[in-house]
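Incident log, structure service

09:12 report received: a user says their structure output differs between two submissions of the same chain.
09:20 pulled the input from the user's history:
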Amino acid sequence: MATAEIESILDLNTLEQYCSAIGAGTLLKSVVLFEQLMPEYVGNLVNAKEAEDKDTLCSEAHKFKGAAGSVGLKRIQQFAQLLQHGEEAAWAAEHDVWLQAIVDNASNDLAELKQYLESKA
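09:34 re-ran on a clean worker, output below:
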């Protein structure tokens, strides 16, 4: 995959800092934990959307943003960042698109992250 494409998916700066500080192997263990929790995170977002529960959707998006950011998943973190701000003017029109982008990209982005870290370990 091209570097520009990887940079749109992963926060390479943060990942390099983490790898230098704690090592890719240790970070990979955190990513495996995130991978186990991700279906619950995404499921909570989808369930809140289906229930038309804006407050819960924004709250769950905030949690997911932090979790995704903590392992360097830049693209889905950015969509969760947008999704958490229900007070923004664009939210009403765009939140479905942002949630779908998370659903569509989360697994592939996670696979890219694991491959990246495995190449560093």
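09:41 both user submissions now match this output. Likely a transient worker issue. Closing.
09:42 reviewer note: The chain has a mean pLDDT of 95. The radius of gyration is 15 Å.
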